[in-house]
Design brief:
heterodimer; A: 248 residues; Rossmann fold; globular; B: 354 residues; mainly alpha; two-stranded antiparallel ribbon
């Protein structure tokens, strides 16, 4: 796989996706894509449909209309556990760790659907990778996840998603509720994971940090894509600066 | 999360009492009186006390198998499966149907026939109850997964009545006697009180089943899936766990335990009845609540305590209320626990016991 060929290849495509909560239409026809090797970010206000977009992709809220393709295969109606098996892992909003399991058990839950989950060597290599990204976690292996600080929980959530060997990583609000110093660290690590070859779809309220790290971005407004462009250009966009970056 | 909120509610209502320190003292006084009563009985009739202790643990192990079914299901769905007691009753019926009527086990059967006959009956009862319980979940609970909490509770009671009527149709309204298939000779005596082989065999069958369950929940991939689903269904799905299949599996296991309990109870009491699932189900449910509903070791601990209370109450001679009062005492415990210690004896510990 050459770099140019990989860069132009769509790993994920959403085409006119409509997703509902009951009778409420949360996504009103969204089309986005993620290419091999990219970081793509979704920014927008609360309720714009960022998390719903992720829930449509990961199978927790199947769209009512439209089409989602992952690596060319249709996953529009796939159930959540099938989507994971195809290679999409997520670090969810609010971390959603298993509070009464230890850090190690939580990380191992990430390998649940892997074919080589019983291969000690492979699993340990991945654990080492997570521990090298988050050295703090190796000190807290046996601690119950529910007793960790918010920043540490976020590390476990991302680490757990990495343990699944994802071909695409979904990150939902990884900076939420974290101290500024943690936020910078988390974003550094997101960049590191991406440079190791994993494409990332990043949902963030911290638009500035997100656009800094991403290749491309989509601005969502009340369930539709309002803007789509290179991250650098979005950062220069007057409207984006006013609404999301707090520039007057 | 929702359970924690509802657990705190009764406590806050009692805050005034707590501030005055009344409730803890009343509680301690009650426990103290209980121990004084047990102590006096121990001194007066040590032999009776000893045998009742052993019998209480035996009975408690059978209750424990039923209580675990309530706790497993509650742990994963926060639903009280009221049909569980009736699944247990049909396990006893299967013992009658397969063991006695089809295989023809009697008190004079040869040892070899008793062993293979009961093993076959055990497998049939466990498999039948497992499938039945999973079917109840599929038909009566799963479609209501996102409905208000009250809805599956009502269908649970409905399922309970339906299964009870199946039992009524098969067993008739009167109690049905089974032959003493297990040997009733004495294992040991405590001051003239005999502990018999049938009771020992019942206890010795329950124990490995409990061990198997612990192994399943703690050590296997399915068990990990169960624990994950119990803690966070959506997060479990994001790990690639098939949540519906895991819930079905939990009902299968709970049902199999009820089937084993049904067989053991039938052999233990040699008397079964179509409505035994209602009373014994509630007793086992009380045991699960006493230990901390959703907590697996708690369910077994609660069941052994309830078994002991029942035996002591019915067997001790000095100021024991007697068997007429057993159910009142058990349900008084249920009320007291729900009001004063809703998290049960093993408190904050968790559904999977870890």
């Amino acid at each position: 796989m050459t770099a140019t060929a990989a860069a132009s290849e769509n790993i994920l495509e959403l085409e006119d996706v409509h997703t509902f909560y009951g009778s409420i239409e949360a996504l009103k026809g969204i089309s986005i894509n993620v290419r091999q090797g990219e970081i793509v970010t979704l920014i927008g206000a609360n309720g714009a449909g960022k998390s719903t977009t992720l829930r449509s992709i990961n199978g927790l809220n199947n769209p009512r209309r439209g089409r989602i393709r992952f690596q060319g295969r249709d996953i529009t109606r796939s159930s959540a556990h099938d989507v994971v098996k195809r290679g999409i892992a997520q670090s969810p909003e609010g971390r959603r760790l298993f509070p009464r399991m230890s850090v190690l058990e939580n990380l191992l839950m990430g390998t649940f659907q892997r074919e080589d989950r019983n291969n000690r060597k492979a699993v340990n290599a991945d654990l080492d990778r997570v521990y090298s990204l988050f050295p703090r976690l190796s000190e807290r292996k046996q601690q119950k996840a529910g007793t960790l600080s918010g920043g540490e929980q976020q590390m476990v959530a991302i680490g757990r998603a990495l343990m699944a060997h994802p071909k695409l990583l979904l990150l939902d609000e990884p900076s939420m509720g974290l101290a500024p110093i943690f936020v910078e660290r988390i974003f550094e690590i997101i960049g590191e994971i991406n440079s190791q070859g994993t494409p990332i779809l990043l949902v963030e309220q911290n638009a500035l940090m997100a656009l800094d790290i991403a290749n491309r971005g989509y601005v969502l407004e009340t369930g539709s894509v309002a803007l789509a462009d290179d991250a650098k250009k979005l950062k220069q966009n007057e409207q984006v600066q006013k609404t999301y970056l707090g520039v007057d | 999360m929702a359970t924690e909120a509802s657990r705190q509610q009764p406590v806050s209502r009692l805050r005034g009492f707590y501030a005055a320190g009344v409730v803890p003292w009343v509680g301690r006084l009650l426990v103290l009186l209980l121990f004084v009563w047990l102590g006096v009985n121990l001194v007066k009739t040590p032999a009776d006390f000893g045998i009742l202790l052993v019998e209480g643990v035996t009975l408690g192990l059978v209750y424990g198998l039923i209580a675990l079914g309530y706790s497993l299901v509650y742990g994963i769905l926060e639903l009280i499966n009221f049909a569980h007691g009736d699944v247990f009753m049909l396990g006893s019926w299967m013992t009658l149907y397969i063991g006695v009527q089809q295989i023809g086990l009697t008190d004079s059967s040869s040892t070899g026939k008793i062993i293979w006959g009961l093993a076959l009956t055990l497998v049939c009862a466990a498999a039948f109850c497992a499938l039945l319980n999973a079917a109840v979940e599929r038909i009566a609970y799963r479609p209501l997964r996102n409905a208000p909490r009250l809805a599956p509770l009502i269908t649970a009671i409905g399922a309970s009545f339906i299964l009870q009527d199946v039992g009524l149709h098969q067993l008739g309204p009167a109690p049905v006697s089974l032959p003493n298939i297990l040997p009733t000779s004495t294992v040991f005596s405590i001051g003239g009180n005999n502990y018999t082989w049938d009771h020992l065999i019942v206890a010795l069958t329950a124990l490995p089943v409990l061990g198997l369950l612990v192994w399943l929940v703690q050590r296997t991939r399915q068990g990990r899936a169960m624990r994950a689903v119990a803690q966070d269904q959506e997060a479990a799905a994001m790990m690639g766990i098939n949540v519906n299949a895991t819930i079905s599996f939990t009902f299968l296991i709970a049902g199999a335990l009820a089937g084993v309990a049904g067989l053991l109870y039938a052999l233990y009491s040699t008397n079964i009845q179509f409505d035994q699932g209602f009373t014994l189900g509630l007793i086992a449910f009380t045991a699960a609540v006493l230990g901390g509903i959703g907590n697996l070791p708690g369910a077994v601990l609660g069941a052994i305590i309830i078994g002991l209370i029942q035996q002591f109450n019915e067997g001790l001679s000095w100021h024991a209320p007697g068997s007429d009062w057993t159910q009142s005492i058990v349900f008084a415990i249920l009320i007291l626990i729900l009001v004063f210690r809703p998290e049960g004896l093993l408190g904050e510990r968790t559904p999977e016991g870890g």
